[in-house]
Amino acid sequence: MTPSMGQGGIPLESVRTAMNLFDSLDDADFVQFDGVVFETEYRRCPDEYTLADDVVLEARLGDMEIALTRSDLDDASYQGDGIYRLKAGNLVRLLATATVH
Description:
Blueprint: H1 12-25, E1 30-33, E2 36-43, E3 55-61, E4 64-69, H2 70-73, E5 77-80, E6 83-85, E7 91-95
Antiparallel strand pairs: 1-2, 1-7, 2-3, 3-4, 5-6, 6-7
């Protein structure tokens, strides 16, 4: 295992990116998908029991609905400014509602 590789030969940067994206799921009230903002209806932070085809995020905007599976989010690359590029090429940003006290 080299310093840039994690267990199983997975590059550490890929592991960090996936963990940051998956960690952000819990707080996501909205998801921006290819520039369109949807309201999150269902989210599940993946764990050791989550399979590749399990839905981890569902969001809706009027009659439009998106559903993303674990495999859709695996190997996402961080683009900066909270934006991730999915392996299918779509851009995703998870957004949380700010709480003002």
